[in-house]
Amino acid sequence: MLIRAAVPQGHHPWLPPPIAPALAVVQKVPPAAISCRLGTPQLRSLKTSNGLCKARRRVRYDEEEDEEEDTEEHGQNSEMSLMEAYSEAVRDVALVVRATVDGEEETVLIFKGFSSCLSSRTAYDPSKSVLPARAVIECIDVVRGPFDPSNVEYLEKGLTWEAFKTRLQSNNR
């Protein structure tokens, strides 16, 4: 559908010059091209008279509706915060944490103050803890950073949370 607006006869400098109706090109845009991401071949091939067709992008997350429920259930994990602070202070090591959440084993990598879940999806929100408060930490491996999964150099392996916690307390003194 083409919408025509009434343009006054006098030209205003802030408006582009009017286009003669014979020179105007109207191109139908297929619905698939509108919903696709920018930069795909379909969208790149759509040309208008003044350049590339522009589209607005909106990031969509699968679990937007469940976010409010998930934050109440998820909770902030203070143990993860302590380990992130430790890895930020000791920058040449990475921590591989194995924990259990509701009977499922989770593996988390912590390096330079940031944590990422290796066994499942990491939340997009960095203020949200990777492991929920109800997680039980099984063991912690200290590896040389930066972490290279093809060549893991273990400095310490199989530390319990209690042993690692005493290390944190002795470093704070």
What does this structure look like?
The protein is an alpha+beta fold. The chain has helices at 31-35, 41-44, 67-74, 78-89, 161-172; strands spanning 47-48, 51-52, 93-101, 104-111, 114-117, 136-144, 154-159. The protein has a domain at 75-172. Helix content is 24%, strand content 23%. It has a 5-stranded antiparallel β-sheet with strand order 5-4-3-6-7. The model is unreliable at 35-49 and 64-72 (pLDDT under 50). Residues 82-168 form the DUF7734 domain. It comes from Musa troglodytarum. This is DUF7734 domain-containing protein.
Short précis:
It comes from Musa troglodytarum. The protein is an alpha+beta fold and about 170 residues long. Helices cover about 25% and strands about 25% of the residues.
**Radius of gyration, rounded?**
27 Å
Mean pLDDT: 71
- What percent of the residues sit in helical stretches (DSSP H or I)? 10-25%
- Total strand segments: 7
Strand count, sense and closure of the main sheet? 5 strands, antiparallel
Q: Please state the structural category.
A: alpha+beta
Give the overall shape, derived from the CA principal axes. elongated
Beta-strand content? 15-25%
**Unreliable runs, pLDDT <50, ≥5 residues?**
35-49, 64-72
Question: Looking across the biggest beta sheet, what order are the strands in?
Answer: 5-4-3-6-7
- Report the total helices: 5
The SSE order reads HHEEHHEEEEEH
| N- to C-terminal distance | 72 Å
InterPro entries: DUF7734 (IPR056636)
Pfam families: DUF7734 (PF24869)
Protein name: DUF7734 domain-containing protein
Features:
alpha+beta, 5-stranded antiparallel β-sheet
